[in-house]
Amino acid sequence: MAIPVEQRRDYTGRELGLEEIRRIGHVICSRAHVGLGTHAHDDCIEICYLKKGRLHWWAENERGGVYEVEAGELVIVHPGEAHGGADDIHDVCDLYWITFGLTSSKKLPGVTREHYNLIRERLLTAPRHFPGNSRIVDYFEQMLTAIETPGPLSQMRLRSALHQFILEVCDCAARGYQKTKDFRFEQVIARVKEDVTFFESVSDMAKMAGFSYNRFITLFRRYKGSSPIDFLNRERIQQAKWLLSDRSKSVTDVAFHLNFSTTQYFATVFKKFTGMTPSKYQKETLG
Q1: Domain residues of the chain, as ranges?
Q2: How far apart are CA 138 and CA 135, in angstroms?
Q3: How far is 249 from 282, CA to CA, in rounded Å?
């Protein structure tokens, strides 16, 4: 039985009579695919939380460019701001998102105008992406559960969870980046980013960090939000995309240059992270 590319929950607040929530959802994407194209929300702010994986996200704002969003981070997109996945790609991830009204002419039901203006100011001046915490997932799940199992108090539960969620996001934004760096993992990560061919295997990465193989996998996943092999392969594929733009290099040349054991394995990994085969990518890139 084929495993679906996406497992998705997607709702509107209207389903429980909460007009302030335009859309809320949760998606687990097991394979990268084209589908996160350019879009905008005219009078809504969007807040996303990446539980697992990594996203390459771009937004048309004063900073411009592409954000590399790590597991455990929140992303804020302003009203009317065009945004989407880099190259329209929806990366492998476990992602929550919500859009809700945030304009100067309106306010959130159940919130005073003074508090609404303060919340609006904090969200619109917050960093574009910053660390969240496990409570963010709890509030998302409370909101989704209220929609999925409606009852006499579901609307109150949903609105209460929304307010708690917004306050938690404001607190996370105020704390900013306070993640303690661990040199054992950071030296491995830096080495991979410097030269994706330096490590031939996860065992080599574990040796540099000073851990046993199994311990390294467990602790790296906890530290980085993805497995060591996914991190290594994602960096390899980023390099592969650049190499494939050279007409003189074949798919086989690129595969073996990046330490993939076979071209078939390279093609499988490439498609997982880009949504297409290396041959198709090279053809579309070169025209």
Answers
A1: 6-175, 183-286
A2: 5
A3: 10
**For residues 10 and 274, what is the distance between their CA atoms, to the nearest angstrom?**
23
Q: For 195-237, what is each residue's pLDDT tens digit? A: 999 998 999 999 999 999 999 999 988 787 678 998 899 889 9
This prediction has a pTM of: 0.71
Q: Which residue has the tokens 């990560």?
A: 189
CA gap 197, 201 in Å, rounded? 10
pLDDT tier, 2 (very low <50, low <70, confident <90, very high otherwise): very low
- The span from the CA of 285 to the CA of 281, in Å, is 6
Q: 183-286: which CATH topology?
A: Arc Repressor Mutant, subunit A (1.10.10)
Per-residue model confidence (pLDDT) at position 40: 83
Report residue 35's pLDDT band, with 50, 70 and 90 as the boundaries: low
The count of C-alpha atoms lying within 13 angstroms of the C-alpha of 139, restricted to the half-sphere facing its C-beta, is: 21
Please identify, in words, the CATH class of the domain defined by 6-175. mainly beta
Q: Which of 61, 72, 216 is nearest to 124 (CA)?
A: 61
